[in-house]
Amino acid sequence: MNIAPQPSRAFRLIVTGGGTGGHTYPALTAIRTLQARLAASGRALDVLWIGTAEGLEARVTSAEGIPFTTVATGKIRRHANPLKMLSPANVRDMARVPLGVVQARKAVAGFRPDVVLATGGYVAVPAGLAARMNRVPLVLHEQTVRLGLANRKLAGSAARIAVSSESTLPLLPEGVRPAAVVTGNPVRPEVLTGHPDKAVTALGLHAFDRRLPTVYVTGGAQGSQQINDVVGGELPWLLERANVVHQCGPAHVAALSARAAGLPAALAARYHLTPFVGPELPDVLALADVVVSRSGAGTLAELTALGKPAVFVPLASAAGNEQAHNARHLEESGAAVALLGDVTGGRLREAVGPLLDDPARREAMAAAARAHGRPDAAERLVDVILSAATP
Ligand SMILES: CC(=O)N[C@H]1[C@@H](OP(=O)(O)OP(=O)(O)OC[C@H]2O[C@@H](n3ccc(=O)[nH]c3=O)[C@H](O)[C@@H]2O)O[C@H](CO)[C@@H](O)[C@@H]1O
């Protein structure tokens, strides 16, 4: 008797996480990489993303055509004073978590995933808990050195905890260490293949002076008031020496445009201000000789994978000073300059000036940065997802 080979059943994955780019893009990259891996062996991937309507994940999944559903969640606002954690807004939001868990349980039971992947952000909590209740293997991915709040809540329920750096391992609670695997933080593949000329065309940077270096200033999706203020104050100095692409966040465009309006025309021609850099991000990064940035884990993973000289202005209030830790870690090996504490125009000039003046210095910093990069992180995370499905 001849039995025709059965086409193998699709791999079913629920992804949960989001809020910021730092939690959203690693999940997106994991989906795409898993899809490619499965396709190579003739297998399909069915995905459902559980997120929040307000988070970046809603926009990203809609642009990518990824099925998306929301559940009730509670955003927990952190305070240094534990008593303030019990603010009315936090109490109200915590009360929403049980409803979210019920909704997520229904979603998980209906979708019957092989694995649930949680990449952090408060929406990951109900869906992660639902995975455990429905006995579906839960894989966590942590982008930062210390586990974020959501991942700390879920660590005890996880089959595997994929972390971005070896230095996370000793910081994990002892009971969950056997589940930990170092994968690195996945970087969107297209980020690694940008082209400078495409940035010039896409953003209309024809008046840039290509004999000068280009600085990319970025404060993350919302922009950074601190970076915008200090860079805004130093625009004449900076534009004498460089072209500048400045990603400032939607709330800061007006103030910076007003500053730019006061610049001499020759300098203004070398200044490009934008609230957000979308699909052209890889090309902007390719064009950049120096990056001035916050030190969120996603940005760091991208800049080290590419080997970009960077001056970091860490977000001071991030939980446990995680961004300062990230920046200092790279500075110690000559891979970046970290501007901690009060950042004045003078300090910015001292940090950026030598990099603009000296290509050899930039090259040395780029090489040191590249040594920290993990371009294979997505493939490693996919290994972890597949192995969790077949324990
Ligand atoms: C305020 C806050 O909670 N920050 C956290 C958040 O960072 P947050 O998401 O703000 O920043 P990340 O650096 O991790 O990621 C930002 C991502 O957005 C992209 N981008 C940014 C601007 C833009 O115009 N276009 C664009 O595509 C960047 O290239 C990057 O891929 O998650 C990170 C990873 O868990 C943490 O390390 C940060 O501490």
UniProtKB/TrEMBL annotation:
Known EC number: 2.4.1.227
Occurrences of domain Glycosyltransferase family 28 N-terminal (ranges): 14-162
Catalytic activity: di-trans,octa-cis-undecaprenyl diphospho-N-acetyl-alpha-D-muramoyl-L-alanyl-D-glutamyl-meso-2,6-diaminopimeloyl-D-alanyl-D-alanine + UDP-N-acetyl-alpha-D-glucosamine = di-trans,octa-cis-undecaprenyl diphospho-[N-acetyl-alpha-D-glucosaminyl-(1->4)]-N-acetyl-alpha-D-muramoyl-L-alanyl-D-glutamyl-meso-2,6-diaminopimeloyl-D-alanyl-D-alanine + UDP + H(+)
Membrane topology term: Peripheral membrane protein
Organism encoding this protein: Streptomyces cyaneofuscatus
Annotated pathway: Cell wall biogenesis; peptidoglycan biosynthesis
Binding site for UDP-N-acetyl-alpha-D-glucosamine: 20-22, 188, 323
Domain Glycosyl transferase family 28 C-terminal: 214-381
Keywords, comma-separated and alphabetical: Cell cycle, Cell division, Cell membrane, Cell shape, Cell wall biogenesis/degradation, Glycosyltransferase, Membrane, Peptidoglycan synthesis, Transferase
Localization of this protein: Cell membrane
InterPro entries xrefs: GlcNAc_MurG, Glyco_trans_28_C, GlycoTrans_28_N
Protein name as annotated: UDP-N-acetylglucosamine--N-acetylmuramyl-(pentapeptide) pyrophosphoryl-undecaprenol N-acetylglucosamine transferase
